[in-house]
Amino acid sequence: MSNTFCVTITHCKTDGDKATLGFVVANAAQGSEKETMVFLSSDGVYCAVPEEMAKINEGGPFAPLKDLVEKFLKAGGKIYVCTPCMKKRGITEANLIEGATPAGGAALVEWLSNGSPCVAY
């Protein structure tokens, strides 16, 4: 059984529920002592932009996205943000929350090639 887990998130502004659920699962994996990586691509890159992530609050029983992201990072989770997706949307590294790392698809491929299971939202 793999000691790693991956969650890919491709929505934020377009579907806050999917962004929220992705981070709920990421927190569950991190809390289960799995080294967990979230890969944000497409519209999901906005999950790492403070002013956009703060707008997502799907309501009970879910915590606001901002709280879920902060909890994930505090627990040692890793967030990678698709560099070409950022560029397409005019997002720079300076626009990202602390702890989010710009990365290309190769980072995701490397993570998965070591046998990590992955879910997508």
Attribute tags:
5 helices, 121 residues, 5-stranded parallel β-sheet, Hypothetical Protein Ychn, Chain: A, globular
Class by helix and strand content? alpha/beta
Low-confidence runs of at least 5 consecutive residues: none
CATH topology: Hypothetical Protein Ychn, Chain: A
Number of domains: 1
Measured on Cα atoms, how large is the radius of gyration?
13 Å
Q: Secondary-structure element order, as H and E? A: EHEHHEHEHE
What portion of the residues fall into strands of 2 or more residues? 15-25%
| Broad shape | globular
User: Order of strands across the biggest sheet?
Assistant: 4-3-2-1-5
Helix content: 25-40%
How would you explain this protein's 3D organization?
This protein is of the alpha/beta class and 121 residues long. It has a single domain (4-120), classed as 3-Layer(aba) Sandwich (Hypothetical Protein Ychn, Chain: A). The protein has five helices and five strands. It has helices at 16-31, 50-53, 65-74, 83-88, 105-113, and strands at residues 4-9, 35-40, 78-82, 100-103, 118-120. The chain has a five-stranded parallel sheet, sandwiched between helices. Helix 4 links the parallel strand 3 and strand 4 (100-103). The model has no long low-confidence stretch (mean pLDDT 96).
